[in-house]
Amino acid sequence: MVICFKYNLVCGSFVGVNHHGQSTLLRCSLMKNEEIESFKWLFQCWLRCMGGNAPKGFLTDQCASMKRALEACMPTTVHRWCIWHIMKKIPSKLNGYKGHADIEQEMSQVVWNSHSKDSFDRNWNDFLLNFGLADNKWLSDLYEDHHIWVPIYLDHHFWAGMRSTQRNESMHSFFNKYITRNSSLIQFLKQYDNCLGSREQAERESDAADFHTVIPCATKSSIEAQFQDAYTHAKFREVQAQFRGKANCITRLKNSALGYSVYEVGEQVSSSIFNKFVVTYDSVAVEVKCQCLLFESRGIVCRHALSVLSFKQVSQVSPRYILERWSKKVKRRHTHIKSSHDEPLMEPRSKRFDQLVFRSQNICEFASESEELTAILHRAYDNVMAEMESLKVKRKGTSSLSHEDANLESVNELQSPPRIRTRGHPKNMLGSKLDKQIANATKKKKTKVLSEINLFDAASAVHSNSSQYQGHVMNYQFRVPAAGDNSLGV
Questions:
Q1: What are the beta bridge partners of residue 25?
Q2: Which keywords label this protein (predicted)?
């Protein structure tokens, strides 16, 4: 990320995407340098906190040290380079060639408009020959690594819409509101907590808006109504954009046999340019696939597939195309985990959740000692779940966790975390009345917890809370600020 405040530490962030498409800060790191061993240590710490579960995808800039560390620590994770940073380098790398503006435009066409691996290879070779770039080392090195930055080689994996580290860049700007190069480590920790609180508040506000307002459908399509009912507002707007784009598509049947049909969809992108996409539809499996891979990479059904479904007069899409990942009804477990910025709120439900986490921690540690104890706990869980489900049915679901409990009024009550006295606190502030009150309250609370749960291990608690997040796509970047850059950005 950047050289952080006055300690010259490298600060980096792990950024993911929530069900509203908002950037979510998952974790932050402070490192002495950007060597391979430092990144290995960082990724191993991440894996420990996540219970050994590696992310499915990891998006970074072209840092060679990160690339090698990821290969060593997370060999099953798909690594992707930020395409925005690569394309941004074209003017500086190729401005010595005649017609470099045309070179930049043609390279962009090859990268973005090659809809198959074979067509990319052909178009790339033609591009090099036409502009006499076959001996350019930068382009040769890029082609050797084309499998980790060219969209057609990566979009069959799910990326939640991320192709660049610009989400990280926007998180950099977000941090600028809280931290400067002159910030101390104590200030960094406090403002980092403020940052988390602000992101959580934005998510809760969006949750509340999803449950108290409705975005009207733009068409009479029953398929659009399916997504309106299921998706968050932000994701439903993306679906609506595809419905609008469907108006520019013309569908033609190429061949059909035994319920399996192949269509060619022509999309008019300008007054004289049509892009063609191959879309297949299996009426038996109720499955539609498009060559553009929008659904596979972003989880949004594309306009070409919608055009084919309309052509076939399909009135409902299969549930497989309505992802829980974007559902407004999803239960976000991390919002029930206690943190310092929501300590003043602690609604009854949050308090109950906190108590259950403390108790289950000891039970799970004890049961994990053997297979027999684990089996006993599993049977107990099954019985308890059956009893709770039965009670929930009797009460018509009023006891279940739901985002309907989140409303704009409660969101607006979120406050910044209290100032906490910690080691390294400036001496001139140690005697303040507020600090003494906080220190006494913290001491009493700590004594109470230790007396009630004397077996609880703080380190394992951190691990337990961290493992609540089950994200699959990470966006990670380090950046060294230019001269005169006085602010910290992720």
A1: 15
A2: Metal-binding, Nucleus, Zinc, Zinc-finger
